[in-house]
Amino acid sequence: MEYVAIVILITLIEYLVFGILVGMARGKYNCPAPATSGDPIFERYYRVQINTSEQLLVFLPAIVIYGYYGNPMIAAGVGLVFPIARLVYLQAYVADPAKRGRGFLPGFLATAFLLIGGLVAVVQTLL
Predict the structure, then answer these.
(1) Does a structural domain hold residue 112?
(2) What percentage of the chain's residues is helix, strand, coil (to nearest 5)?
(3) pTM, full prediction
(4) 9-43: per-residue pLDDT in tens?
(5) Would residue 127 count as lying in a domain?
């Protein structure tokens, strides 16, 4: 489970960095808090952070459950796809929101794998 913990920590650090980027974008694009709209580039950074928080609600429990009841090495390997994909998502979304899918899809698929794998592993444990 140590590798799962490392992936979780990497993901959480990445999320904190996204928050810092939003704060920096507030200053650069003159969008003071509590505003969440204004300059389109600021809004893109903000949406990346919010969308990532929405994905984390499913990803974090999924990687823990699959790592504990399934295979922690597979959980860590598949889980590492998530923060890498979120970085691609950030770059794509800020450049052109229409191209964000190339970062969204791999992260979503990794989360879906962990979620379904976790469910299967828990059911197998019960049987």
Answers:
(1) yes
(2) 85, 0, 15
(3) 0.93
(4) 999 999 999 999 999 999 999 999 898 999 999 99
(5) no
Question: Is the Cβ–Cβ distance between 45 and 22 less than 8 Å?
Answer: yes
CATH of the domain at 95: 1.20.120.550
29-42 per-residue burial string, b: 16 or more CB within 10 A, e: under 16: eebeeeeeeeeeeb
Q: Which amino acid is at 102?
A: R
Range of the domain at 25: 2-122
Question: 59 near 68, Cβ under 8 Å?
Answer: no
Tell me if 35 is assigned to some domain: yes
Q: With contact defined as beta carbons under 8 Å apart, do 42 and 29 qualify?
A: yes
Q: Which structure tokens are listed for 98?
A: 């229409």
Tell me how many domains the chain contains: 1
